[in-house]
């Protein structure tokens, strides 16, 4: 079976929408003729999601029988806020926004249109730019999916950059109808994306010149998304990693989340499933300071004897928490999820391992009252007194998944012959597919620096 580029892009779109929990902005690029088919296909392929299709009416400058004209839509927020049962919508599919742009697009040099004159800014785009925080705060349960032709996405990028910056990119789905007309359209689409990259590169240079770190990160992320649309995933990853570093530096959580999701999509498209799923889960991780601590023998004894006395955690530090090198340590996981299953992963430059459940450290992965202390008494490390020892300095990352309904995958059953379960591509995909079937699970993430 020959899998086309459009098939891959469509599957990436489905993965993004399937794991989306709450607010998001997604753009799907396709021809106007294909819009209805794409909407129907998305709804059929994601039956577990609650959809609403919003068709924006086209303007009509001729008077009807009552003497009225239909102006372009100018205020999307008011339309959404008045949708019946909007609190239960997971995904809002929006079509027809391009009709509110067409009256403002004027001819210009190079076929780009006169994008830069203030009188060409459609009110609906000004409104989206100015009220994006209201969309995020008031529609926290809705993922907005705008289905648009390429010219409208290009126009939106240039005239509503703030709103576009919060998107997870553009999923470009080509028509399945063959013929010279589509070949020309595909060529034009590629040229438009390349022009967008050039535009973002110019903006990037200006942002760096004036020291605008937020704008720099936004431009880098948009360049990465553009390269993803071209199928150049290695280039996309390079730009997303740069944007991620800046978002973290300036503490922009929304930008960080968008970059992580874009990175996950790019790694998944390359078949690098460990990187992809790590980025995707990290993006979904809840902010919970000090949920994971490493303790000396005396501190662990106090917790073991007085489980109800573990009341007050130290305040979170601005600097990454540290782990002393070559010390025997206990691990305490302080999460209030009684009777949930815990999956605990550790990633460092040596690789990724599963600590819980495992024969090595945690035979029983069902959490009781916090803190959940490792190694457990009957594990290999508990019997031998090995505990946790970090022998190299550097960064250690920990990711915990807590599940209300335990997973019963064979490799999650602790075995003596595999003390720490192997973390391979087949198991990674299997885990992710099982997680996507469940609704009630949470992710937590923490980094440490191992120091002398």
From TrEMBL:
Top-rank taxon, per record: Bacteria
Keyword list, A-Z: Cytoplasm, Membrane, Repeat, TPR repeat, Transmembrane, Transmembrane helix
GO molecular function ontology, one term from the record: G-protein alpha-subunit binding
GO CC entries: cell cortex
SMART domains linked: TPR
Keyword Acyltransferase tagged: no
Protein location: Cytoplasm
Protein name stated in the entry: Tetratricopeptide repeat protein
